Amino acid sequence: MGAIEQSNAIFLSISNGKICRQVLQPSKTSVTRVNKNGKTVHEEFYKGWKGLITNIGIKEHKEYGKFWCVTLSDKDGDAILQMNYSSGYSSAFLKTLPNIDLKSEVNFVPDMKVEGDKKKTTVFITQHGQPVKWAYTKDSPNGLPQLKQVKVKGKITWDDSDCSEFLEKMVKDTIIPHLPKGVSTAAAKVPVPAGAEEADDVDPNDLPF
User: Which domain holds residue 89?
Assistant: First the structure.
């Protein structure tokens, strides 16, 4: 798996369906809050982010677990977008990935809807003025394993382990070799994403196409 280079990149996460960028000092557009660790943080929120995908990797945090890290580059530099490893955001992105033209910029727009007590999260990718559809769908899985129902402490839940492993292998085998920064072996020092505090339920019916 290609690791993310250590750099002066902007670090982004996704929180409540918006791209989130933490800044050191309050800005004209930032929102200030106290996180669950009692730290005051300043965050700017954006509807989406645009750039060329130049690297994809996985980072593991000892407290919050694994994250997908996607480098989006443009003329102003790099932005590293972090998504929970097992989330609607990362799942939607990875299922779209095989249909993305890796030589052209993408528009990355997250979305979140609340239905009852559950959050439905996804991302929409557009390119060349058109939406990019998923390569793996409920009707055409193309080898993607199905989610499994398992019982954990008496509660029935969905296990996406096989699906996640399949998508991780797909990225390693078919995407990383075509990315300009995918050959890097330098470990990334990325901060804890704002979205790490946000729960995200796995739902096998959360499909946009």
Answer: 10-196
Which of 180, 194, 154, 190 has the alpha carbon at shortest distance from 39? 194
In a domain, 182, yes or no: yes
How far is the C-alpha of 59 from the C-alpha of 69, rounded, in Å? 7
pLDDT tens for 133-177 read 999 999 999 999 998 888 778 888 888 999 999 999 999 999 999
Looking at residue 191, its pLDDT comes to: 57
Tens-digit pLDDT profile for residues 31-87: 999 988 888 999 999 999 999 999 999 998 888 889 999 999 999 999 999 999 999
Segments in 17-98 forming alpha helices (H)? 88-96
The pairing of strands 40-46 and 118-127 is unpaired
203 occurs within a structural domain: no
pTM: 0.83
Domain assignment present for residue 204? The answer is no
Q: Is 145 exposed, middle or buried (0-12, 13-18, 19+ CB in 10 A)?
A: middle
Is the backbone of residue 154 left (phi > 0), alpha (psi -120 to 50) or beta?
A: left
| Burial class (CB within 10 angstroms; exposed 0-12, middle 13-18, buried 19+) of 128 | exposed
The answer to the question of residue 80 being in a domain is yes
